[in-house]
Predict the 3D structure of the following.
Amino acid sequence: MNQQAISLEKDSIIEAASEQTGGLSDFGDLPFVEPLGLALDSLVNEAKLNEIGRYIARDRMLLHTVNRLLFVEDRKKYPQIQQEKIVKPVFIVGLPRTGTTILHDILGQDSTSRVPMTWECMFPSPPPERSSFDSDPRIAKCQATFPDVELLIPEFKTMHPMGAQLSQECVTLMGDSMCTPLFHNQFRMPGYQDWVDNEADFAHVYEFHYRQLQHFQWRCPGDRWMLKTGAHMWGLEHLLTQYPDARIVFTHRDPVKSMTSYASLTRLVRSMGSDETDGKEIAADWTQRLNQVLNHAMDVREQKVGADAKIYDMYFHDFVDNQFAEIEQIYEALGIELSGEAADKMQQFITDNPQDKHGRHTYKAEDFGIIPEQVRETFKRYIDKFDLRPE
C-alpha cells in the first residue's frame, strides 16, 4: 500500500495541493494553515478511520486546500472581483433537519436569485460564467463523484439529495476557511469541533465567505444571494457584521426530531469512513453542541446585533402543511417581489418533489439514547421562546 497516497500529514496535503495548482503556495491573509493542522490532527487521533475513510478524509482536506489556493490566485488574476458588492443576501438558518434543504431548493427556483451550485463550490476556479453556467464541464466532473457515495451509503439520498446542479450549503464553503462544523459531521473529530465551538474567530470565516460570493457573482450575478446552513448559528454576529443588510429565514422544529434525525444522518455519513460509529455518543455530543450554538444565536438576536437585518421565523409544521404559502410569507416578510414566473416554477418543483421522493429513512429516538423529555428540558429556553409543540 502506498501510505503517502493516504497521508494525513499537513505537509503532504499542502505539497499535493501546490502540485495540483501548478505550484501555488499563497493561502492569503486570513487563517488557513493552522486550522488545517488542527483538523488533520483530529482526523488522525480521533476519527477512527478505516482505509476508505483515510482516502475520503485526505480527498476532502486536499480539495479545500486546492480551492483555497485557487480562490486567492483568481483574486490576484482578476482584481475586478474585489469590486463586487453583496447586497441584501438571504440566509436560511436553523437546527439540522428543519426543512432547510428543501426550502433552499424551492427558493432557488426563482431565476432572479443566485444560488451556489454544488459543482461550483466543489470546483470554483475559474470563476463561473453566466453563458456556460448550465454547460460547464465541471458539472460532469462533480456529478462523477456521487456514484461512490451511493455505493457506500445508498440510504444517504433518502435524507439528503445529491447532484452537481443542486444547491449547496455555506457549511461546505466554510471548509475553504478550514473552520466548519461539517467536518465533525462527516468524521468523528471532537477536538477540532471543540475549537470550532469555543475558540475559532468566525470574523475571518465571514470575511472569506464574502470574497467567495464576490468570486461566484463576478461573471454570474443575480438580484440577490439565496444561501443556507445551520452553521451560521456559530457566528451569527459576524454574519450580521459582514452583511448588515442580511435577510434571514430562521427555521424552527421540535428539537427532539432535529436531534434524532441529525444523529441518524451523522451516523450514516460517518459509517462511510469508519467501522466504529456510536449513535448514542453522536446524539449526546451533538445535542450539547447544538444547544450551545442555538443559545448563542438567540443571544445575538436578543442583543439586536444587525439592527438593519430582517428576520422571518418559519415553523416546520407550517412549512409541511403548505410549502408554497410559507414561501409567499417569506417573500413578503423579507420585502422581495415574487413574480408569477417564479411562483409557477416553485409550485411545479413542489409537485415534482414530494416528501420521501427518494424513499423514507426511518429512525427511532431510543436507538440513539434520546429521551424526549430530557432533550426538551435541555432546549427549554428555545422551546419556550418559540412556543414549539412536540411532534
The chain has one domain: 88-386. Strands lie at 90-94, 113-114, 224-228, 247-252, 310-315.
